[in-house]
Amino acid sequence: RLSATLAGMEIGMYNSIGYIAQAVGLKTTTASKSAFICSLAVVTVPILDKLWGKPLLRRQIIGACLAAFGVYALELGGSSDALTEGDILSLVQPV
Question: pTM for this one?
Answer without folding.
Answer: 0.69
